[in-house]
Predict the structure of Rh family C glycoprotein.
Amino acid sequence: LTKHTYYFSRQKNTNIRLTLPVVCFVWQIAMIILFGVFIRYDEESDTHWVETKAHDNITSDIENDFYFRYPSFQDVHVMIFVGFGFLMTFLKRYSFGAVGFNFLIASFGLQWALLMQGWFHSLDPQTGKIFIGVESLINADFCVAGCLIAYGAVLGKVSPVQLLVMTLFGVTLFAVEEYIILNLLHARDAGGSMVIHTFGGYYGLTISWVLYRPNLHQSKRMQGSVYHSDIFAMIGTLFLWMFWPSFNSAITDHGDGQHRAVINTYLCLASTVLTTVAISSLSQKTGKLDMVHIQNSTLAGGVALGTAAEFMISPYGALIVGFFCGIISTMGYIFISPFLEKTLKIQDTCGIHNLHAMPGVIGGIVGAITAAAASESVYGKQGLINTFDFTGDFKDRTVLTQGGYQAAGMCVSIVFGVVGGAIVGSILKLPIWGDPADENCFDDEVYWEVSEPATHHLLFIIQPLGGAIVFDLVSRDELQTTFEIFI
């Protein structure tokens, strides 16, 4: 027992000069080898596209899927690298880690995702190859999004090596649960309320629970935000908010399904903003707004409408979902986050429970109810078949059965997130990854060269004030102390 306790509590060594380069080099070389063996261009990105056009009587290159999907891919790509990255820059001394590590794990994750999703979804049984096109890139970004959501729960408390390990396992788990939900259960989840947000949320929360730090209060001084860091985080919020209609519609069917998903998400997000502002103001005796709520809860509607985005939920239905999501998510930041930390020992840095996990579950429930309530009079006979893909082995499925499988899909995502997070968290708890000590969390200087030292160099500003001279002791982040010397 003594040896075990020592093993997990010995002095932290954050020098990753060897481990980080080794992991990056070895894993990237592995990606090159695996891509060489398995990955090939699909028919629409291969030079044989000319022959395919002639064979299939395609008269114009505009029929190439690239021209349908690339605008959405571009929007989703911006969300992954700019939106998620900048949303996490709210901490006063962890902006490099937020944007930089987001960049690192997304770049690795999308490569591994192309392989994992390819093996499960598009492996050609005859050639043993994975054929990729622009839609494969969108799906890889979706896969990475689940890992970036999980990163939000452990932001500032883990090393980049731990993040890479978390992404390796997270992408693997994602590919398996996605295959079960979308292929075996045949649930619909175009915007990923279940597959992305619910899984990513509970995956990150469970890892944070396993990695609980009882002495994290030693870094309390670094956990808050400052004016400029909140502004940077709002950049991420606005990019995510603007492009979320593309996220929810990126892989839906061409035509009415994609069109409807954009409209529904657009309206839901707008409704969420108003109720978020309302609850944020009501929560303060002075009626002032909290930037944490505005940065995060305003996005909850996009998460919650992911599953039902392409369904006939109706414009007013989208507004209703957004209305309640803004309320629930903001109340989560006010009441549930403190409860999670104090009672369940879950230290959720970014509040992903309120932005992703809880709205993801709401999205799964909304999707199940909307699917079960679908009717031929609303959708039309062919519309029902197209929307829920009632073809092949699923041609005899009823809407009530579909609603049940939608609910089952949500349960699968939660189970994979919790069980997978517990296993991966136990691996990340090993003291070999170079994670920071409790007193050094949320500080860029642990892993980055920072031009300005984090130590509080005091600047003395002398101002005449009546018969006194006021000395303001100012740290690099904020005003620390003010005292007066009377003459």
About this structure: Residues 27 and 108 are 8 Å apart (CA to CA).
